């Protein structure tokens, strides 16, 4: 992509982010964005149809990056064990991607909302699972409905994401991934070091 195009889009993103800190997205106009970004409206319309198209493109950009990261660690011939072992590096790289795209993430969460973001995450989860997971995994006999797994996974991910943002991303992606995989594989009681009562 041309450097001037990248610079313009970066300025538009920064302008929108600063504006949504001040007022609701619905009342923000293209003129507000262009004045804050110090560009003319014609330049804005070279890149986006309107402010809603801008959001659509931001969301698409972020989810394409997340999907690309998730697919890096999937192989057709993985066993169930290998598939599970690769969840740690996948989670690390997903959070690294979100850390790098913090501005974009903040814009989407403040405009689209948590529930919309969660729904999109859930859809991506199912799409990757159904279309790209090894057959040894997809053909596995699951104890509970997959739609419940998708709901549980996406809502947990969003809650962790909110916690991470509110704590100013204090934990590294590696630390977060370790916490999540510990809880998944050990269970919350063991992961938090709580011993069950003696029988």
From TrEMBL:
HTH tetR-type domain span: 6-66
Keyword DNA-binding: yes
Keywords: DNA-binding, Repressor
Coiled-coil portions: none
Superkingdom in the source lineage: Bacteria
InterPro entries: Homeodomain-like_sf, HTH-type_Tx_Regulator, HTH_TetR, TetR_C_Firmicutes
DNA bind region: 29-48
GO molecular function: DNA binding
A matching Pfam family: TetR_C_8
Keyword hit for Repressor: yes
Name of the molecule in the record: HTH tetR-type domain-containing protein
Organism this protein belongs to: Lysinibacillus macroides
């Amino acid at each position: 992509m041309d450097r001037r195009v990248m610079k313009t889009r970066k300025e538009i993103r920064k302008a929108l982010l600063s504006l949504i800190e001040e007022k609701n997205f619905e009342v923000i106009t293209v003129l507000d964005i262009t004045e804050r970004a110090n560009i003319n409206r014609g330049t804005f319309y070279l890149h986006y149809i309107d402010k809603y198209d801008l959001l659509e493109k931001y969301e698409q950009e972020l989810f394409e990056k997340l999907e690309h990261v998730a697919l890096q660690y999937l192989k057709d011939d993985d066993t169930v064990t290998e598939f599970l072992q690769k969840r740690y590096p996948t989670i690390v790289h997903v959070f690294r991607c979100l850390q790098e795209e913090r501005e974009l993430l903040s814009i989407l969460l403040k405009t689209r909302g948590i529930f919309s973001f969660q729904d999109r995450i859930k859809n991506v989860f199912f799409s990757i699972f159904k279309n790209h997971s090894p057959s040894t995994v997809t053909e596995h006999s699951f104890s509970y409905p997959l739609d419940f797994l998708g709901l549980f996974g996406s809502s947990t991910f969003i809650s962790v994401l909110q916690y991470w943002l509110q704590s100013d991303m204090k934990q590294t992606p590696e630390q977060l991934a370790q916490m999540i995989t510990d809880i998944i594989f050990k269970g919350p009681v063991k992961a938090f070091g709580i011993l069950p009562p003696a029988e």
